[in-house]
Amino acid sequence: MGYRLGVDVGGTFTDVLLVDERTGVSHRAKTASTPADQSEGVLNGIRKVCRDAGIEMHEVAHVLHGTTVATNAILQGRGARVGLVTTEGFRQVLQIGRSFVPGGLAGWIIWPKPEPLARLEHTVEIPGRIAADGTVVAPLDEERARAELRRLGGAGIEALTVSLINSYANDAHERRVAELAAEELPGVPVSLSSHVLPEMREYERTVTTVANGYVQPEVSRYVGNLDRSLSGSGIDAPLSVLRSDGGLTKAAKAAEDPVSLLLSGPAGGVTGAVWFAEQAGFPDFLTFDMGGTSTDVALVLDGRPRIGRETTVGDLTVRATSVDVRTVGAGGGSIAHVPELTRALRVGPQSAGADPGPAAYGSGGTEPTVTDANVVLGYLPTRLAGGEISLDAEAARKAMRSIADAMGLPSVEAAAAGVIDIVNENMLGALRLISVRQGYDPRDFALMSFGGAGPLHANALGRLTGSWPVIVPPSPGVLCAYGDATTCPRDESARTMVRRFSTLDDDELRTALAELADAAAGRLEAEGVPRASQTATYQIDLRYHGQGFEIPVEVDRATVDGDLLAGLGAAFDAEHERLFSFLLDNEREVINLRVTVSGPRPEVAWRVLPEGSGDPSAALVRETEVWMDGATTSARIYDRSRLLSGDVVAGPAVVVEMDSTTLVLAGHAATVHPSGSLLIRPMNEEG
């Protein structure tokens, strides 16, 4: 037992959380992110949190890190120059894609098609063919392969990707190309589609592999630099990185398979939310993570986040397992503006970011943001991040005046209230995507809010969705770092098995799942996780024969050991009806098998707050004036660190802490749960 260090790097802030595994006592630090070199901001935060906790750097036993390096490389176009090797006749696989144009009919006219991550001039084709059943139709032309690899080397490629047709069924040709590449292109990292995504559908397999190669050098450099910087600072603890599915992987494995990290940052928040929701006793909830640049939302059912098979970053969609997170460009730094053409108020997706930031930060920003609106309305305290950031209320009012003037509003408060209403509606749309659009009623779920800006808007989002209670966990501004520190190691194996139910039996399917589980378990064991402490979860992609898409279905251990095909069919029918409201008489068909093996969750003690009397007056800081429901009203400001279990904070009220601020609206009350979470409900609602 020792100290676990969770680190989450966002677009605006770097959050660091130090947790004592024995007591559950935590220490937080929030420092400005350093986009030029993220490791610099990480080390600043680690030094600060260790100093505040009164421990030496060498006392840290585990470093767990959620990173946006891979995500930013995609969004900012800073990846490697990628070379792509394809089977003869498939050179334009990325250019053809799926012939999908987003948006309505006008999308065909105005949509600028994004440039593939591997340019056509850096794509080569090699004779040789493998059939869908894995048999060799034509041998690999090794002489041609060497010539094409040398040509790519002359073009200055920085990463090589190999995606040959049907390699998921037989990877012999891809492995041979990798051997030839080691001779012809020494030092150039190679990504094989049969390793990155051993599943059918050549376009998805190719674009995912190319994305892996595109971000690999950047991620490898960052992880290596951070690892060396930690060692140089006296931390000998191993570095683990959070995967997009919420599990941990060793730094070396992360550098090898960086496409699995594209949603590393948001996944940490969902994982941390599960940790605190479990303590508060709410297994079904929506997550609402609002930071400085964007808002991420997800759905958790029965204590498990919904896992998707696609990861989307900007215009790029790849086939990689990840927490089903939806993102909207709405954050504390989102800029409000009134277009000349429509004269209608808009908020985001443009953001002031960390530099120059909102006008209230006093760092040179002049455009009105969501943060400025919260300052004008009186919802934010004068100092943020434990006193590191002071707010300039007059600068915020000046920025918001431009919105009031453009819309002819009588006051800056009215303009600020409009900004808050618009950004709340934007975030409501994202919450509906992961609930209503997926067949779930948000009124059946609680709403877990976190992120630096989330608790300011959470009560209003609860009112819009009907999701109660609204849960604000302890340290909401660094919850992603909490997720990093409290999750478990994880690995995954997958394969394609296109078989109708009539041609398959339970034993054959069970054997295939066991082989995948054994492979993932072996890799996890190599990372130091004993097999005896591992658990496996199973997911099978199914469809009705004749359909052009499949649906992932979770299968529990009891079903695997029992009447497997019957249980699988019933689960698929239930999921198909939930999504589409109908069933077909067609025979069911297995497409892909997937097994995820996880290590044990760390034994971090839960903190329990002392029992209070229900009266929060001991935590009262002062009274203030806020603008709420169209008028100025009196509100009380409370220090969250002084609240006790059972205390009830009635709105209108503002609850402040080092890393975030919670707003309790009039007609609502926040009850302090023994775990430290605030549970906000309408006053007329029982329980």
Automatic annotation (TrEMBL):
Domain Hydantoinase/oxoprolinase N-terminal: 4-184
GO biological process, one term: glutathione metabolic process
Entry GO CC: cytosol
Protein name listed in UniProt: N-methylhydantoinase A
Annotated Hydantoinase A/oxoprolinase domain residues: 205-485
UniProt keyword annotation of Hydrolase present: yes
Xref: Pfam families: Hydant_A_C (PF19278), Hydant_A_N (PF05378), Hydantoinase_A (PF01968)
UniProt xrefs under InterPro entries: ACX-like_C, ATPase_NBD, Hydant_A_N, Hydantoinase_A, Oxoprolinase-like
Family annotation (Gene3D superfamilies): 3.30.420.40
Domain Acetophenone carboxylase-like C-terminal: 508-669
Keywords: Hydrolase
Record flagged with keyword Nuclease: no
EC number: 3.5.2.14
